[in-house]
Design goal:
Blueprint (H helix, E strand, L loop, with lengths): L8 H26 L10 H55 L8 H21 L20 E5 L12 E5 L13 E4 L4 E4 L6 H54 L3 H26 L2 H7 L2
Length: about 300
């Protein structure tokens, strides 16, 4: 190759190689500082698209797990109220059984008055947990807010509309207030209950015992549904958590930087850059040799 004062080909080649080394070094530094292998679309367009899809699934499952935990919390609140109502039914049975005995010599009217308060408390608690008589009045609509098919969306299904995305707890038409348990009738126009049994006589007390036993069976069925719902949601959380972990691992393999590999590249590229700078400096001095020919 001849000497030229116009074009320094060695310098141009050194600049080109140094520029490429610097670009790779900058990319390595970016990956190490961010912890990500893909920092922009140009790093891996196909990989970025797949990683974004995984990240979207992660967002859905993360919220789905929170939804399921909220569902468990709601069912636990309902279950606690049902347990208290069950205790009230125990007290009602105690009062009715006491009144049904010939050996009872006290005032049955006193027992009947207490039973009325027990029945009223059952309705109050059923209203508080949202499983009381349905009422069109907006002020009382919350009394039956959970008396429906509760669908908890979790995700992880084969498609957005797939039924296996959700867990359903069927509390439709459930009513555990005094009316729902057979102790009273409910007037939606006034929001009042009219007690339909009493235990003021021995005969009435015997009838009340059967009504209370039926109410216990009804309540037990509701408790079973709520308990099964809690178990289903807990199992769904376990599955969703496993799916979430796997999606995060899959995204990490695509998006995250291999720190060990990048650190190795950093050392190699730093040395290449230093060598490239030295080579460029030497190439820039090569034209000085041409001047010696002109002396």
């Amino acid at each position: 190759m001849g000497f030229s004062l116009v074009n320094n080909l060695a310098s141009l080649d050194s600049q080109s190689r140094l520029s490429a080394t610097s670009a790779r070094l900058n990319r390595t530094l970016q990956r190490l500082s961010s912890g990500l292998r893909i920092n922009n679309s140009g790093d891996d367009a196909a990989g970025l698209a797949i990683a974004n899809a995984f990240r979207n699934d992660i967002a859905k499952l993360s919220q789905g797990i929170r939804n399921a935990n909220d569902g468990v919390s709601t069912l636990q609140i309902i279950d606690g109220g049902l347990a208290t109502i069950s205790t009230l039914l125990d007290r009602a049975m105690t009062l009715a059984t006491q009144s049904a005995s010939d050996t009872f010599i006290g005032g049955r009217s006193t027992l009947n008055a207490e039973l009325g308060k027990v029945v009223a408390e059952i309705s109050r608690q059923a209203q508080n947990i949202g499983l009381a008589s349905a009422d069109p009045d907006p002020a009382r609509a919350a009394w039956s807010r959970f008396a429906k098919s509760l669908t908890v969306f979790i995700g992880g299904g084969t498609s957005a509309n797939s039924s296996n995305n959700s867990v359903m707890v069927d509390l439709s038409s459930v009513n555990v207030d005094a009316a729902g348990l057979g102790f009273a009738t409910y007037d939606s126009a006034t929001g009042n209950y009219t007690v339909s049994i009493d235990i003021s006589t021995q005969a009435n007390a015997l009838t009340a015992i059967q009504t209370i036993r039926s109410a216990v069976t009804t309540l037990g069925g509701v408790q079973g549904t709520v308990g099964a719902g809690q178990n289903n949601l807990a199992q769904a959380i376990d599955l969703a958590t496993s799916q979430l972990t796997n999606f995060q691992a899959a995204e990490s393999r695509i998006r995250d930087a291999d720190v060990a590999s990048e650190a190795s590249d950093l050392s190699r590229l730093t040395i290449l850059q230093q060598a490239g700078v030295a080579a460029l400096a030497q190439a820039n001095q090569s034209n000085q040799a041409v001047l010696s020919l002109l002396r």
